[in-house]
Amino acid sequence: MSRVFAYCRVSTADQSTQNQSLEIKSSGFAIDAHRIIEESISGSIAANERPGFIKLIDRMESGDVLVVTKLDRLGRNAMDVRTTVEHLANAGIRVHCLALGGVDLTSAAGKMTMQVIAAVAEFERDLLIERTQAGIARAKIAGKKFGRPPALNDEERAMVITRLKAGDSITALACDFKTSRQTIIRIRDTT
Questions:
Q1: Within this chain, do residues 35 and 101 fall inside the same structural domain, yes or no?
Q2: Which of 2, 11, 21, 27 is catalytic?
């Protein structure tokens, strides 16, 4: 007979997993208290790096069922959730997500749901990249400078070049202009 486990996660210590536990219980799952893993850890941490989730996986066996209230409890993004669900499926563990109508994510319908979610996540990531690149291009056209500001302004750079031509040492110039030797060398090499 399969055992049922629950994974409840919140992001900060001042939050409670109580609502997740109640939601699982009200959905008809009677889970023994020792099979409910509760964890306060940021969702930005991958599931396979969370101490509570690792403990849960070590306890579960093929044929067991894992219940979560929402997909974001399992991972930091769609790709992480997909990897986690695939890992569990390969171990013979079924995953039920209440937010998706209790669908078993390891079933055919669940796999299709996961593929749609992964495709949407990839689409959103690609849109974000496109918008970022368009914004950078607009800013460049508008004359915005990117990167770290130069250590020396144009006037100081001209003075460095003049003094280099006069024979001043790189170390002396770096001291006088309160900058690194590498900055002086870069100025020398660009002239």
A1: yes
A2: 11
Do 109 and 175 share a domain, yes or no?
no
Q: Both 89 and 36 in a single domain?
A: yes
65-68 and 36-40 beta bridge pairing: unpaired
Per-residue pLDDT of the chain (191 residues; tens, 9 = 90+): 689 999 999 988 888 899 998 999 999 988 999 999 999 998 888 888 999 999 999 999 999 999 999 888 887 777 788 888 889 999 999 999 898 888 888 888 888 887 887 777 778 778 888 999 999 999 999 999 888 888 999 999 999 999 999 999 999 999 999 999 999 999 999 87
- Find the domain containing 20 and state its range: 4-117
* CATH number of the domain enclosing 110: 3.40.50.1390
187 vs 158: CA distance, rounded Å: 9
Whether 11 is catalytic:
yes
CA count, 13 A, side-chain hemisphere, 107: 10
44 in any annotated domain? yes
What's phi and psi for 94, nearest 5 deg? -85, 145
- Cα distance between residue 76 and residue 81, in whole Å: 7
| Domain total of the chain | 2
Count of CB atoms within 10 A of residue 24's CB?
Answer: 23
Distance CA 163, CA 168 (A): 6
Q: Are 41 and 106 in a shared domain?
A: yes
